[in-house]
Each structure stands twice: as structure tokens, then as C-alpha cells.
Amino acid sequence: MADFSRVLAGPLATMLLADLGADVIKVERPGTGDDTRGWGPPFVGEDAAYFLALNRNKRSVVLDLGTEEGLSAAHKLAVSSDVLVENFRPGLMARFGLDHASLARTHPRIVYCSLTAFGEEGEAAAKPGYDIIVQALSGLMSFTGHPGGEPTKVGVALLDVICGLYAANAIQAALLGREATGLGGRISVSLFDTSVAALVNQAANFLLGGLVPQPMGNAHPNIVPYQLFDSADRPFILAAGNDRLFARTCEVIGLPLLAQDGRFATNGARVRNREELIPLLQEAFSRRPAEEWLASLEEASVPCAPVRRVDEVFGSPEGTAMVQDVDDPVRGLLRLVANPIRLSGTLAEVRSPPPRRGEHTEEVLRELDA
Would you report the helix, strand and coil content of the chain in percent, each value rounded to 5? Predict the structure, then answer.
């Protein structure tokens, strides 16, 4: 797989495929390489932790596409690959003769995936796109945050992650399709389109119900109670996702008649009357510490959780199980988040640490010339 992508969405897609066994060759520019190598601190050696999070199981080559030698090597790599992934602005790869139309003339089996910010047509196509830009333009920021507060982005570049997952899924589908037809194909996945798709119920609430989502803090537009509550000492999350769980919650807090009250007996009624219900629940939860409520709710099989910090996540048994220690002969031992897919109960293998810039250039060039 020839990976001409950089930053997050593309590298996440290719890392996922590398974890599943693909030989991914990451093409980087001279000097700086992938932008995320410099997105620190923290750094491990010369590379930022950000880069190390997205590029395990890959080989890195440095190619200068502005030179005849570099462009020739890029062409050899492209036509010898099953898959090519790129996330340049529309039209740039065509300038190098590395677009799908050019490559498919001699390599009709290639699966070619372009990740763009806003698609490849229309006046927005040429605009650059970062996750926070699309969080703003997709509407996500408009209903994230607290009522009366400023629009708020999600704490990680989640829309880039979603775009990368769509791209990886599409690539695998195209490879399966090639088995039947003998032909590859062109995939186009945009950050904006996948972000709008990720609005799921909020988009449907507007398209089908005319409801414009508003910021609701930690509450849910369609489920009540499904939010953060303050206990006597710290906040916690309660997710009573159906009438049965709500009734159990009412038993736990000593107010069983709430579940029989017509204003609250069904989820639809609770959504309509949340302004009356939530203060009643909050007053009850404020009487005892979170640990006691969590124990009682869990005993009643009501979904609930403390609000953890990241250090608490990786200090838990389930968080520890998502960490893989990777030996790096130059950087030392790296603790990386594992691929979450388990095949027959086993985590995907980390065959190699994230590459140093250009680490495999000579190796790959020899293979291309063989």
C-alpha cells in the first residue's frame, strides 16, 4: 500500500490496515516529513507522541516529488501497490501523474482512495480542512458545550478519526469488489461528508422533526435521564436508556413513585418534562457520595460511571489491556494504544514501531528496482 497521506485521517486509515496485515509504505517529504512529527511536546527522540500514535506497522520513505528521481520512484511505488491513499488538495496528484485516471491506464487493479476536506467539486473543494474547521462547519460545535456558553469542540480530533475509519472500511470493500470484477476503483471520502454523517440522531432530529440542536451540556436530546449528575462529593454519569432502567433508578434513590408519574413514566414523557424531572433527581443524588450511588446503581444493573481522567483510564484493568509495549531499537520502549479489534480474542499484532523519517527509503527503493 502506497500511503501519500499525512496528519490524521489518512494515517489512521492506513495504520488500521497495517495492523490487519497490509504492507504500508509511508511516503514523506524531505526535511520535515509528516507534519505530526513536529506536533509536540511531548516528544520521544525527534518525533512527537502525536506521530507515534498513528504510524505503527509502516515503513517510511522520503521522496522529493519535485525531482525526476523522486517522482520516478513514486510512480514505481504506485503501480506496484494494490492500494494508494492520498489526502492532498484536489488536483495536486494529477500534476505529478499520480492521480487515479493516470495510474489506472496501466494498473487497472489499483484501489485509489482520496481523502479531502470538502470533496472534489464545488467552490469549497480547494479549501484546506482541519478537524476544528469542520467541527465548526458541520454543525457539531453549535450544539456541543453548555447552554449560554461558547461553541465547543470535542476534546480530540474526532471527525478526522471518523473520516479515517470510513476510508479504511471503503478500501476493504473495494478490495473485496476487485476479487469479483478484477478491477480496482476510485474512492473519495471527505472530512465534511463523514462529519455530517456522524451527526446521526441530531441530523435526523432536524431533517425529520425540524428540531435545530442546541447545546445541552452533558444531557441527551432524546433520552432522559442520560447525563451527568452531581453527588455530595463528585460528578458521575447516569445512563437510564429505557423505562425499565429509569424505574430501577427511582427505586435506588428511594422515589419509586416517580416511575409511575404520568409526566415521567415513558422516555418520551421524560424528554418533554425534563425540566421538572432533573431537579428532583439531582436533589436526591446530592445527598450521598458518588461511590455509594455508583455501587447502588451498579447493583441494580443501571448503567453509570465515574468521570475518569486519562491517568485513571490507563490505571484501570480495562485501560491497561488496551496498551501495547513496543520495542523500538532507537527510541526505547514505547507504550502505544493497541488496535481495538480483537481477532479470535487476540489483539492485532504490532509488527514494528512507528518508523523514523526515511528509515526504509533504501530498502524500499531496492525492492522497486528488483
Answer: 40, 15, 40
How far apart, in Å, are the Cα atoms of 95 and each of 88, 92, 317? 11, 5, 51
| Cα 178 to Cα 172: distance, rounded to the nearest angstrom | 10
| Catalytic positions, written as ranges | 160
Alpha-helix runs per DSSP H in the chain:
9-19, 49-52, 68-79, 92-95, 100-104, 131-137, 158-181, 191-197, 200-209, 243-252, 267-272, 274-285, 290-299, 310-315, 317-320, 361-369
Task: Answer positive or negative: Cα dihedral of 341, 347, 349, 355.
Answer: positive
Rounded Cα gap, residues 154 and 214, in angstroms:
15
In the predicted model, what is the mean pLDDT of residues 299-322? 96
User: What type of residue is 90?
Assistant: P
d(CA 160, CA 12): 9
Opening angle at CA 124, ends 119 and 128, nearest 5: 80
Rg (CA), the chain: 25
Long-range Cβ contacts of 117-121 (<8 Å, 24+ apart): 117/190, 117/191, 117/192, 118/190, 118/191, 118/192, 119/188, 119/190, 119/192, 119/193, 120/90, 120/188
Cα 142 to Cα 136: distance, rounded to the nearest angstrom: 7
pLDDT at 128: 78
Tell me if the bond preceding 353 is cis, omega within 30° of 0: no
Q: What number is the average pLDDT over the span 240-268?
A: 97
pTM attached to this predicted model: 0.93
Residue 252 has a pLDDT of 97
Instruction: Kindly indicate the confidence band of residue 344, based on its pLDDT and cuts at 50, 70 and 90.
Output: confident
Q: Are 27 and 63 in contact (CB under 8 A)?
A: yes
